[in-house]
Each structure stands twice: as structure tokens, then as C-alpha cells.
Amino acid sequence: MIPNQRSLFNIPDDVAYMNCAYLSPLMRLVVEAGDWGLRRKVRPWEIEVKDFWEEPNRARRLFAALINADPEGVAVVPSASYGMATAALNLPLRGGETVLVLADQFPSNVTHWTDLAAANGATLVEVARPVDSDWTPAILEAINAGTGIVALPNCHWTDGTLIDLVAVGARCREVGAALALDITQSAGAMAFDVGAVKPDFLVAAGYKWLMAPYSVGFLWVASQHRAGKTLELGFIARAEHPRFKHLSNYDMPFEVGGHRFDVGESGNFALMPAACAAMKQLVEWGPAAVQETLAAYTAPIADWARQRGLMVADDRLRAGHFVGIRFPGGLPERAVQRLATRNVFVSQRSDSLRITPHLYNTEADRARLLDGIAALLEAPGQEVA
Ligand SMILES: Cc1ncc(COP(=O)(O)O)c(C=O)c1O
Hints:
Layout: E1 16-17, H1 28-40, H2 51-67, E2 74-77, H3 80-90, E3 98-102, H4 111-120, E4 123-127, H5 135-142, E5 147-153, H6 165-175, E6 178-182, H7 194-197, E7 201-205, E8 217-221, H8 271-285, H9 287-307, E9 323-325, H10 335-340, E10 344-345, E11 347-349, E12 352-355, H11 363-378
Parallel strand pairs: 1-10, 3-4, 3-5, 5-6, 6-7
Antiparallel strand pairs: 2-8, 7-8, 9-12, 11-12
Helix pairs in contact: 1-8, 2-8
Bound molecules: pyridoxal-5'-phosphate.
The site of pyridoxal-5'-phosphate has 12 residues, from helix 3.
């Protein structure tokens, strides 16, 4: 178990921020690293050519450590959508095949597949939400010889319900389907093993559980795709770190590896040091320990809700860093806004009240949250669908 880490953040005592799945707060040391990075360009004459690669390469190593992958396969991208667009550019899909996604899946891992399917005479298939929240059997059953691509998260963004990606990966290999993953809602907060799941492409936006600034994310590419097509044709992704004086050698080949897929200007002087500082801290904590600590924190919230007749997925079927609460008659009117007036910050996603704490949350925060939900139950107001 990791002891409480609130002192690393700048969160007032009376704020119960439980919305990490929306935007994580930045740690003080992350802001300092970003400030240092931004200020470097105040004195550009001190910036050396190697500095364009050093921080992104450090970020590759740190992200790779968090997902147990090789850093050579990691690309620096600005968003999950950018990573998925790269995956869609490289995964073949034949007419009559299907692309499998979940009901209500986050759009960054749906819309590229809708377009790719339409362009190739293929179809998008949504796995319906199982009544018992156990996605894995439903997904395994839906994958068949006609499945071309399986595009999934690690846990559902609305309520944290889990998908067993090791089992799904094995099934994909059995039928010859490609696997594209968006682990934005778990990377950094839950252990992940690329070697066990064996995806083709994997993306994570950085501004949630990776605790990085907005507009930084990572894409990991399996070795068989590392010479694939890139969205951009930028010079920064070319082989043999170009010396700036030779840039008009337009035939310079692209790197083979994650670096090939980097967004232009991946050596972002402000964002990269900040993202590295955040991921360094996560590596020190260890995603498995973060998960264990947050699971212990959320279990009493889930129990409390169930005792009051509210619906929460079984603990073995939900990620420990999420509690998605559903109300039998629908969410009380303006639930999120009413909680916010008590300085309790959570989200509504679909019909789920999504509570996503982190290591900065205290027992006082939890009491504040439960008092707020109790008040909603006492005066639910007009029910909304
Ligand atoms: C599952 C998931 N993926 C990705 C994102 C962010 O996507 P993007 O980086 O494309 O803006 C979110 C944001 O809520 C998300 O919940």
C-alpha cells in the first residue's frame, strides 16, 4: 500500500477531487519540470541539437516501463485519437469483415474504425453491455473468423468495468484478428503487460492516469508494424538523427520503430520534461501498487452504495481506481453540479456517476463524497433518464 500523497499536489483541504478519469491534477514537481522546460527557450542558444531527442526518448523509456514493453516500440503522440489514426492506417480490413468495439466506447477508439469499415465494405459490431457487467465472455463470444480488428480499452471509461485483455489477445491470435487498444483509462494506475496481451497497437492519452499535462500521449507499436505508414512525413522521424544542416536530403529514410510514428515536434520543450517527471513518479510508485491502494480506497465506497440499493459492478469486475454508481431510477437531477457545490468533484458518463480518486484522496474526502451522495438520495429531485 502506498501512503497518502496529497502533499505532492496543490489541492485545498476542503476539495474532494475524485475525477482523475477526466483530468488528473498535476503534481508540483511536474509543474516545476514543465516550467524548466518552457524556460529553456528563453535562451535558445543554449539548446543543443541532441536536446530535440533526449526528453522524448526518456519519455519512451518511462512509458515502456509502465506497460512492460520495449521503448523502441513507443511513439510520442499528442492524443489517443492520433495513435488510433496511425493504427487504422496500418491495419488491413477486408470487405465482409467486422471491427469489434464495446457499446458506449470512447470515440477516439471508434470513429476511425467506423470510417475504415465504411471504406472497405466491412461492418462495425458493438458488444452490448452485459447485465452483470462481465464484458470478457461477451467479447470472446463475439470474436469469430470474420473478425478483422478488435478495438478495445482495458476498462470501460464510463464505470471502470474490466476486460481481460490477455484472454482477448489469445482469442484474436486464434482467429487472426488484429488487436488495437486504448488504455488511456488505466495506464499508470494498473499494471499492464504488453508481452502477455500482445496487441498490434496500443495508445494512451497522458492527461489522466499518466498524470502528465494535456496534449501528450503514447503509442506502442508491435514489431511487425514498425516499418508501417505514418500520418506525417516530418523530418524528426527520419533515421540517423538528422544534423540540421543536412535536412534537405529529402530521401532520408524513416526510422524503423516507434520513433517513426512520432508527431512532428515531438521534442516539445515544455511538455516532455513534465510528462517525464509524472511518469518517473508513477514508475517509482509502481502501477500495481497504485491499483492495490486505490482498490482499497474505493471498496468502502462501492459497499456503501450497494447497501443503499445503488448499482455498482462486482469488485472483481471493476478496476480498483473506478467506482461507477448507477441509480435504479436514473441519476438524480443535476447530481454532478450538486456534488460540486459541496466541493466534491466527479463526472457523469452515460448513466453512471463516475468516481475516480487517486493517491491524493483522504478519508475526509471520502466522507465528503458519501455525505454528498446521501443528500442526493434524500432529495433526488426530478429524475432524469
Ligand atoms: C478511453 C479514453 N480514451 C481517450 C480519451 C482521450 O482521447 P483523445 O486523446 O483522443 O482526446 C479519453 C478521454 O476521456 C478516454 O476516456
